[in-house]
């Protein structure tokens, strides 16, 4: 099936390969290495238009990075609807399951600068542009279902607090500092979101393994004008998986582009990332039926109470051709809607509806950013807006005003039945007032529900994250305030944090909240071995029969085996065939693998033994599966073999076990202390 966006972009793609070098005016040049000078050793001449053009263009190459979500990556794909949503919405792209809608997606971190590391602890942006036949629809989402504040007017304050501190511009891409936690303790509506940010969700293994959430309550409107409240969800086919904290910090140095490369490589290999697209629906008459306000963006709708209805699928199937042109210039906006999708009075959403166009004006340099190829809708646009920086269209009509008779009143507005957008006529009344509704005043019940719903290892990770982050705060007063605040969520958790960061335990016990929502635990999501990276460590003379059996099983299970050895030279097995390693012990690292298989070989020298032990040790400490051949099982530390996810290979049964272990990804019940005690 044609991807119409791809066809549109094709008109703008330029291949310079094999071409003559010209100036921007199309003039072929004889020389591009030497500026025009008065004598071989003389000064460069003003006349050198080629030099001036080249340097001027270079001087102007940078545009302002996004004020938030500066670090990210993107890909093209398509949306496939499973069943018509006609009953709830008239949105064209949600009517016919036979129509595929082209999309562009951008994933991002929030706080870090454009060149910061991928694997930092942070929220991840999850922005999707649907190029529909009714214009662009943008779902500007995150990988967490709630937000730090209830009103957009606080967004600049929060961002100032989380960004590097103004005096020193440190720390980069990290919330582990005084101003962030000072903001949190003084703005307690952030409690629920902070619980998510301290959880494993904030350190995803892959953009392909994250859930996405539209956060706000939106409105669907059907053909009859009936409204239904809706929350949007994306669920990854591969389940939700995270890194462990120690890994993230090491990866930030070993491969700061970890998540970016992961996405690009998966798409290049044809392992197209997939996300199910779902909606939670709430009838308008049930607006007040929940025990929180559906306009409050610090609240989620528990899936056990309002199930997520899966209505379609997103597949990412093409990498960008040019990062700047596509990923850097894409401009999202929650206000890019289509008929059948409307807003609610969530004060965070209302404020966002202003901010996004405004930011593009400075970032992309003027009001014509909708004409940049990646932003251009598939349908033509016609109105009386004119001129401005970088205008591309040549509007031939002499008429650029409404109402007119010279152009028969065109471009003309159309009725709703002809596809015109009409805002939902919600009845609104009230006094003008700067205030927060009483219904927005509970800040802790869902924060507690989130914690209550975690598995034991997830709870431990949350506590460890708090201990790290709050432990980095220099102000003891702020540390105390944070501990007191989170005492409202869970006493045991707050006590442990207090003990670790050297402040008093919070007063009183918090046992008010017992609600649990199992869907919040990523431990309950899909587990599959597909695409997980298995480092296969080989050495000259390895057992070919065993290696082939394991490799075939790994491929059958759709994992991604990657061969590692001392050098990149081909390695000969016992059967005479050769394997060409992808990495050496120094060009990759155990933190970059999801599992390891160590076959070794008879010629494993001392240096290789040291490296293999390092790979085993790190992989073990990060709870990842390990398979070792029987003949080198002595490289395992004592008692390690008895631990979960560690296998010594002496037959096919063990290969199957290893594959199952990879599906589990992490083996949390492993005793990681045994290494320390045995050394
Ligand atoms: Fe935002 C970018 C998501 C609240 C103001 N936001 C941005 C991006 C994502 C989100 C994914 C990156 C888009 C891209 O990849 O280009 N933002 C959210 C979510 C929010 C949210 C899910 C709460 C539910 N944002 C929010 C508020 C404001 C902004 C309250 C301001 C009042 N956001 C912006 C921005 C950005 C942005 C300054 C920076 C770059 C851009 O828009 O294009 O306008």
Automatic annotation (TrEMBL):
InterPro entries attached to this UniProt entry: Catalase, Catalase_AS, Catalase_clade2, Catalase_clade2_helical, Catalase_core, Catalase_haem_BS, Catalase_immune_responsive, Catalase_large_C
Q: Give the CC-aspect GO terms.
A: cytosol
Q: Where is the Catalase core domain?
A: 22-410
Q: Does the keyword Metal-binding apply?
A: yes
Q: Where is this cross-link: 3'-histidyl-3-tyrosine (His-Tyr)?
A: 333-356
Q: Where is the active site?
A: 69, 142
Where on this chain does heme bind? 66, 106, 155, 352, 356, 363
Q: Which UniProt keywords apply?
A: Heme, Hydrogen peroxide, Iron, Metal-binding, Oxidoreductase, Peroxidase
Q: Which reaction does it catalyse?
A: 2 H2O2 = O2 + 2 H2O
Cofactor(s) needed for function? heme
Q: Name one GO molecular function term.
A: catalase activity
Q: What is its EC number?
A: 1.11.1.6
Report the superkingdom from the record.
Bacteria
Q: Name one Pfam family in it.
A: Catalase_C
Gene Ontology annotations of biological process type: hydrogen peroxide catabolic process; response to oxidative stress
Q: Which family does it belong to?
A: Belongs to the catalase family. HPII subfamily.
Q: What function does the entry list? A: Decomposes hydrogen peroxide into water and oxygen; serves to protect cells from the toxic effects of hydrogen peroxide.
Task: Quote the protein name from its UniProt record.
Answer: Catalase
